Amino acid sequence: MKTVTLSTLSALKRAGEPFSCLTAYDASFARAAGEAGIEVLLVGDSLGMVLQGHASTLPVTLDEVCYHTRCVARGKGRSLLMVDLPFMSNASQERLLQDAGALMRAGAELVKVEGEAWMAEGIRELTRRGVPVCAHLGLTPQSVYQLGGYKVQGREADQATRILEDARTLVEAGASVILLECVPASLGRAVSETLEVPVIGIGAGPDTDGQILVMHDVLGVSHGRAPRFVKNFMVDADDIQGAFRHYHEDVKARRFPAEAHCF
Ligand code: KIV
Ligand code: NA
């Protein structure tokens, strides 16, 4: 695999070739994922749940995300490194810029922010300063207490239209990538077809330009009931490297996600 950049993702989108993304939190798993061909690694604030055992992503701090980013950056090989801005990094424009700066200095190549159309100004300021942004829409886990749980978003037509409009607004503001979580497959397709930038989906159907999963779900070691959109790739693999390879190959061949993983 050649070094993956934002241009690589755009070229894959234009060529109609899906790409795979996976969360990573340390150097060893990052290396294994990169060697499996996975194009994008995400230091997700899901680390609050899968590493720290919290019930949500809210307790995760900037320092913790920076620590894991430095670990992943040392092992990641040629994959593109995306990193989450933690809860309340968007408390002010000043804080957003400072926190994004810290992530970039730690090794991030793309920062991900949750938020709807109102994040446009923040995204504009970040991209002006050379920080590429992925905007995370649909189910935004940092708002879990406002959403009333981890639920599918955009089922109603007006809600779906709003998510599509928000995505358009954030791309106009400078977002280089959109990530859609837990939305109907029809909305995942509509957003991907409408936008020129790459769209990554998790529980967003088979037609987004990229797919992402949490590493622990791919390895079948998450606790609690697995969401419908995940798949344990260890079931048919001999080892962890094999599970990463199967995930990557299944995304590339459009075997994953299957009907059973979609809304
Ligand atoms: O934190 C995370 O792992 C994420 C992915 C689920 C997209 O944001
Ligand atoms: Na996240």
TrEMBL record:
Enzyme class: transferase
Catalytic activity annotation: (6R)-5,10-methylene-5,6,7,8-tetrahydrofolate + 3-methyl-2-oxobutanoate + H2O = 2-dehydropantoate + (6S)-5,6,7,8-tetrahydrofolate
GO molecular function (one): 3-methyl-2-oxobutanoate hydroxymethyltransferase activity
Cofactor: Mg(2+)
Gene3D superfamilies reported in the protein's UniProt record: Phosphoenolpyruvate-binding domains (3.20.20.60)
Predominant subcellular localization, coarse grouping: cytoplasm
Location relative to the cell: Cytoplasm
Keyword Thylakoid: no
Residue sites binding 3-methyl-2-oxobutanoate per the record: 45-46, 84, 112
EC number: 2.1.2.11
Pathway listed: Cofactor biosynthesis; (R)-pantothenate biosynthesis; (R)-pantoate from 3-methyl-2-oxobutanoate: step 1/2
GO biological process: methylation; pantothenate biosynthetic process
One Pfam family per UniProt: Pantoate_transf
Cited InterPro entries: Pantoate_hydroxy_MeTrfase, Pyrv/PenolPyrv_kinase-like_dom, Pyrv_kinase-like_dom_sf
Positions of the catalytic residues: 181
Membrane-spanning parts: none
Binding site for Mg(2+): 45, 84, 114
GO CC aspect terms: cytoplasm
UniProt KW keywords: Cytoplasm, Magnesium, Metal-binding, Methyltransferase, Pantothenate biosynthesis, Transferase
Biological role stated in the UniProt entry: Catalyzes the reversible reaction in which hydroxymethyl group from 5,10-methylenetetrahydrofolate is transferred onto alpha-ketoisovalerate to form ketopantoate.
Family label: Belongs to the PanB family.
Summary of subunit composition and partner proteins: Homodecamer; pentamer of dimers.
Protein name as annotated: 3-methyl-2-oxobutanoate hydroxymethyltransferase
Protein species of origin: Halomonas urmiana
Name of encoding gene: panB
